[in-house]
Specification:
Keywords: Signal
Number of helices: 16
Structural class: alpha/beta
Family: Belongs to the bacterial solute-binding protein SsuA/TauA family.
Protein name: ABC transporter substrate-binding protein
Order of helices and strands: HEHHEHEHEEEHEHEHEHEHHHHHHH
Largest sheet: 5 strands, mixed
Strand content: 15-25%
Strand order of the largest sheet: 2-1-3-10-4
Number of domains: 2
Subcellular location: Periplasm
Main location: periplasm
CATH superfamily of the largest domain: Periplasmic binding protein-like II
């Protein structure tokens, strides 16, 4: 009888092990995915939520995250094999494709769907009109980057020629733009969060407009992988995207203070109250994508903005550089 009981318990243990293994991608043996992110930003909140809330772990993914600080560095990391997945602007895939890459990066999941910058005025204004910019000194982003391309696109939409209707400054490094404005350079500046809200809280500047709201949906930040990696590791990327989608919906449903608490550990020396303030601003304007599926209209808007800025090397069809099957598989 004891032998029968032992055999039964052994069989039951094996059944439980098989059942547990079937619940998540990769089972007890975690599958490693190396991700290079272009910068560390509250703009990427759903991604950090997927990490902090264990959504990647639930899918059997051991995520290795590296911040590579800059689009060029991030793309180099991906193309050289230093990363499996890159989190960076979708425009980079067009640049690489135009260079006749044999194994081009393909966009497979969208994270943010608007520009993430804000127009900050040095003076507190009773009201703001875009014409107020004419004749002013405008501290913009670097030439050729998505923030500057979006900025110029929005100015043109409002009848402003950025190169003749204002004094446009573009020769300051990205990391030094906030300090340049704080030290007195410019009447207006284009800033990412949390710097925009921090300046407003400290009385250094005042947010008067959102470039994200003004420019519409655009695949501003996406996850991409080389075509060969997608072909070889599609199931792994489906699991990755499934975890991301859970996080996107979680961020959309949770109060901003709960989201802030979930990601604050990713931002040393940033108060949770400021993180919540930024999350609220991005959520309220729909910057966080609630679906990983990159839409054709957003892709066309991206190319329109690049073309207007004179930075589009060639028109690239949506189907060439966007993989929809991974996101569609998750959304089913």
């Amino acid at each position: 009888m004891k032998l029968v009981k032992k055999a039964f318990l052994l069989l039951l243990s094996l059944v439980l092990i098989v059942a547990i293994s079937a619940c998540s991608f990769g089972g007890s043996n975690k599958e490693t995915i190396r991700v290079s992110e272009v910068t560390r930003s509250i703009f990427y909140a759903p991604f950090y939520v997927a990490i902090s809330q264990g959504f990647f772990e639930d899918e059997g993914i051991d995520l290795e995250l590296t911040t590579t600080w800059g689009g060029d560095n991030t793309m180099t990391s991906l193309l050289s094999g230093g990363a499996d997945v890159a989190l960076v602007g979708a425009e980079t895939t067009i640049y690489v494709y135009a260079q006749q890459a044999t194994d081009p990066p393909i966009n497979f999941a969208q994270l943010t769907q608007t520009d993430g910058t804000f127009l900050v005025s040095r003076d507190q204004l009773d009201s703001f009109e875009w014409d107020d910019l004419k004749g002013s000194t405008f501290l913009g982003q670097r030439t050729g980057g998505m923030p500057q391309m979006v900025g110029e696109h929005v100015l043109k939409q409002h009848g402003i020629n950025p190169h003749s209707d204002l004094n446009l400054i573009q020769n300051i490094d990205f990391g030094n733009i906030p300090s340049a404005f704080a030290s007195g350079t410019g009447d207006y500046v284009q800033l990412f969060e949390p710097q925009a809200s921090l300046f407003e809280n400290e009385g250094i500047g005042h947010i008067v407009a959102s470039f994200g709201t003004e420019s519409g949906n655009v695949p501003y930040t996406v996850f991409m992988a080389k075509q060969s990696y997608i072909e070889k590791e599609e199931e792994k990327l489906i699991a990755f995207t499934r975890a991301l989608t859970k996080a996107q919906l979680w961020v959309d449903e949770q109060p901003v203070d709960v989201v802030a608490e979930a990601i604050v550990d990713f931002f040393e020396d940033t108060d949770v109250e400021l993180v919540a303030q930024v999350v609220d601003r991005y959520k309220s304007q729909g910057s966080y994508a609630t679906s990983p599926l990159l839409q054709p209209e957003a892709w066309e808007n991206l190319q329109l903005i690049m073309d207007e800025a004179g930075e589009l090397p060639q028109q690239v069809d949506y189907t060439e550089l966007v993989n929809t099957s991974i996101a569609e598989s998750v959304l089913k």
